[in-house]
Design goal:
This protein folds into two domains: about 190 residues, Lysozyme-like, CATH 3.40.80; about 80 residues, PGBD-like superfamily/PGBD (Muramoyl-pentapeptide Carboxypeptidase, domain 1, Orthogonal Bundle), CATH 1.10.101. The chain contains twelve helices and ten strands. The longest helix has 18 residues. The strands form three sheets. It has a six-stranded mixed β-sheet. By secondary structure, the chain is α/β, with parallel strands linked by helices. Helix content is about 40%, strand content about 15%. The chain starts with a strand and ends with a helix. Bound molecules: zinc ion. Zinc ion binds next to loops. Zinc ion (ZN) binds next to loops.
């Protein structure tokens, strides 16, 4: 895979979800066949009409080059509203059921990486290197974030009935991604290749084990405030970008407030805003996403 940084790549903006993306949405740009790649790339960085950029994280040109146009920590405006059942499937590892039949009501761009082929969507050829590069970048992201390709790699048209992209078969595409990830055991890959219809039954067995560090598994240790000293303080200091010395001082408090403010600005619609007070109570702790995995799923579902 040839991965390059696009000129003017976005490195800052609204942040993605703290625990890493839950899934990947595949698109085409629906740009004119006559547009030069470099112009499409810059347009997708800047945005169009009332949609501010970045419009995706990765763009793939017909020669098979993958252009990163935004950091994976930056939220991109690519998926729009979609179906909560699909996001729920990503969280639980339930395979994608196919094209969406309803427009859907939730926005989840802060949980979704956007990957888009530069293609007009009107029958323009998708050369093999371009398709293959799309498989490769998706497999790379699945491995990096512990995303199950069968539940976590979706076409835009599987997210919402408002969209038709991409034009190729996503079921086949997911199989190709599975074969490229390093997280799926070899035997399972062979079984899948021969029994594509058994996809759902295999999902549980294939479900990648998320690499959970101790950091993401710490239970709420009680409210942390200025004066607190503990390992938990170190965790939150790393999360808010303060010096991780385990001592909750004025500097940490300032950073916590800034983090709470940023969280409130970027939260999904129905998430409850945090009190910007520089205290790390249960709400802020949970928002920082240190909670155990089973509880984390619950938290995610709470905003549907
Ligand atoms: Zn799209």
């Amino acid at each position: 895979m040839k991965l390059v940084d696009a000129p003017n790549k976005k490195t800052s903006g609204k942040p993605m979800r703290a625990g890493g993306p839950l899934g990947i949405v595949v698109h085409h740009t629906a740009s004119s066949k006559k547009s030069k790649d470099e112009n499409v790339i810059q347009m997708c960085i800047r945005g169009v009409n009332k949609v501010p950029g970045p419009l995706y994280h990765y763009l793939i040109s017909s020669d098979g080059i993958v252009w990163q146009i935004a950091g994976e920590n930056v939220k991109a405006n690519h998926a729009g509203r979609g179906n909560s059942s699909v996001l729920n499937g990503m969280i639980k590892g339930i395979p994608v059921k196919g094209k969406a039949t309803t427009p859907g009501k939730i926005s989840a761009n802060s949980s979704l990486v956007g990957v888009s082929l530069i293609n007009d969507g009107l029958g323009q050829d998708i050369p093999h290197p371009q398709y293959q590069a799309c498989v490769d970048i998706c497999a790379y992201l699945c491995d990096k974030y512990g995303i199950n390709p069968l539940s976590g790699v979706i076409g835009h048209s599987e997210w919402t009935s408002r969209k038709v992209d991409p034009t190729f078969d996503m079921g086949e595409f997911r199989q190709s991604v599975v074969s490229k990830t390093s997280q799926v055991p070899e035997v399972a890959r062979l079984v899948m290749a021969e029994n594509p219809d058994k996809e759902p039954a295999l999902v549980e067995a294939l479900r990648p084990k998320k690499k959970k560090s101790a950091e993401t598994n710490m239970n709420f240790p009680g409210t942390l405030r200025r004066g607190s000293r503990s390992e938990a303080v170190k965790l939150l200091q790393r999360r808010v970008g303060a010096k991780a010395d385990g001592i909750f001082g004025w500097g940490t408090k300032r950073k916590v407030k800034a983090w709470q403010k940023a969280y409130n600005r970027n939260k999904e619609m129905s998430q409850i805003p945090l009190t910007v007070d520089g205290f790390v109570g249960r709400m802020t702790w949970n928002a920082m996403n240190f909670v155990p995995e089973d509880r984390e799923v619950h938290t995610e579902r709470a905003f549907f």
